[in-house]
Amino acid sequence: MTGGRLAWRRLVADDLPLLARWLADPTVHRWWQHEHALAAVERDFGPSVRGEEPGEDLVVLLDDEPVGLVQRARIADYPEDLAELSAVVEVPEGAVELDYLIGSPEHRGRGLGPRVVAALVEDTWAAHPGAPAVLVAVVAANRASWRALEKAGLRRVAEGPMEPEDPGDDPLHYVYRADRPGG
Q1: How many CB atoms neighbour CB 22 within 10 A?
Q2: In terms of DSSP bridges, do strands 172-179 and 65-74 run parallel, antiparallel, or are they unpaired?
Q3: 82-92 as b/e: b if 16+ CB within 10 A
Q4: What does 14-41 look like in DSSP terms, one character per residue?
Q5: What is the 3-state secondary structure (H, E, C) of 140-155?
Q6: Widest CA span of the chain, in angstroms?
Q7: Is residue 1 part of a domain?
Q8: Compositional bias (Basic and acidic residues) at which positions (predicted)?
Q9: Which of 13, 28, 109, 152 has a CA positioned 20 to 30 A from the CA of residue 145?
């Protein structure tokens, strides 16, 4: 189990070369089929860095060392995500979605993923006071990811076809949910 103090902060321009390296890592690239040339990362993550995107790109820090990335957004702010999720599960108004990666290879497989997800879900209740739930869709083939969600306390509430990052993957996705405490 990876110990240490967890924190996060907004992605900034100086983080983009590191993010490009993470996205180029074969383990990350398997599930995040994102262009990883620095110019592509600057193009695609620049709007978030500049505050032009409604969602948040957050660098995960372990004892002040960048180790991963979490994307957090109100689902309704991304109509394509809302339509795709709504075809599989009821999406409560104001619900938030998460996506995540552990970019630092030495921290994978050591319990950091579930810690990050649990901490960000908890933080979501304060950062998004109107959010009744957090939903996370994960391709069924990504066992490590959905096991991390389960270990973080999210529960599987649906499964169905969604567009996978890798066109070679089966479209079956699992949808996990955490509800606001006392909500």
Answers
A1: 25
A2: unpaired
A3: bebbeebbebb
A4: GGHHHHHHHHHSHHHHHH-----SHHHH
A5: CCCHHHHHHHHHCCCE
A6: 45
A7: no
A8: 170-183
A9: 13
Q: State pTM to two decimals.
A: 0.94
Report pLDDT digits (tens) over 122-172. Answer: 999 999 999 999 999 999 999 999 999 999 999 999 999 999 988 889 999
- Give residue 31's identity as a one-letter amino acid code: W
Residue 85 is assigned to a structural domain of this protein: yes
CB 25 within 8 A of CB 35: no
Amino acid present at 49: V
**CA atoms of 181 and 183, how far apart (whole Å):** 5
CB-side neighbour CA atoms (13 Å) of 180: 17
What total of structural domains would you count in the chain? 1
